[in-house]
Every structure is written in C-alpha cells, then in structure tokens.
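Anyone up for a design puzzle?
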C-alpha cells in the first residue's frame, strides 16, 4: 500500500485500508448531523481554534468541526480500520468566512474509528483517542 501525499499544509495521509472506499460518503440521507455528541476528547486546541469530533448516535456518522477559527484554517476527519496505524483523510474543509465550519459527515464503516484534525495558526492538532 502506498502513502498518498495530502495537499493540505504539506501533511501526509496514512496508508488507506485495503478495500476501503475512503472518499465515499454514505448515500444521501443516510448520514446526518442528527443527535450529535462530542466524541473522544471534547476539545483540542489547534493554534487559536478549537477542534471537535462530532458523532451522530442515530446515523453512526462522524464529522469534524472547528470553532474560533480564522479564514483559511482547515479541518478534516481521519478514518482508520487498524487503530491508527494507517488512516485516510476525509472531507478537508477550509474556513471561507466567519469563524467556524465543519466537514461532511462520514459513516464509521461498522468498525472504523475516527478523529478530527485541524490546522490553525501554524499548528496542527487532532482529537484523541480514536473514536
């Protein structure tokens, strides 16, 4: 398996899990932002911004959120099937205006674990542990 370079502040993605459809969002209507809870560590600071992994208990989908951010800050979700040895970046989203944004929501894949990462103020941080 090859490691793919991510065109996001020079970061490198982990290796994709064999057979994983990493860039596929569950069909429209399946994932939603309904009944969200904070997953893993509730807040992690990335520079000036706060990063959150949000999770829908009804649709079993996760998404990343960044608040107190500035224009051009980034947030994304990582998904792993092997406890973080390899992972895939999903839904990299840039703050275009205002001070917050979120990624699309992604199904946890019935065995996948997720985390949210952000790049803000020259600092990259991720929520922990994998959820």
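Challenge accepted. My sequence:
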């Amino acid at each position: 398996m090859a490691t793919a370079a991510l065109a996001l502040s020079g970061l490198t993605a982990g290796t994709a899990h064999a057979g994983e459809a990493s860039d596929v969002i569950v069909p429209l209507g399946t994932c939603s932002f309904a009944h969200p809870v904070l997953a893993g560590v509730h807040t992690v600071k990335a520079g000036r911004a706060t990063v959150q992994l949000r999770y829908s208990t009804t649709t079993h989908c996760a998404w990343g959120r960044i608040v107190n951010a500035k224009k051009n800050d980034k947030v994304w979700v990582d998904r792993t099937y092997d406890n973080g040895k390899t992972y895939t970046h999903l839904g990299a989203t840039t703050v275009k205006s205002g001070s917050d944004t979120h990624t699309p929501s992604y199904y946890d894949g019935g065995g996948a674990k997720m985390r949210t990462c952000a790049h803000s103020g020259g600092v990259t941080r991720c929520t922990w542990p994998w959820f």
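A detail worth pointing out: Residues 1-28 have pLDDT under 50 and may be disordered.
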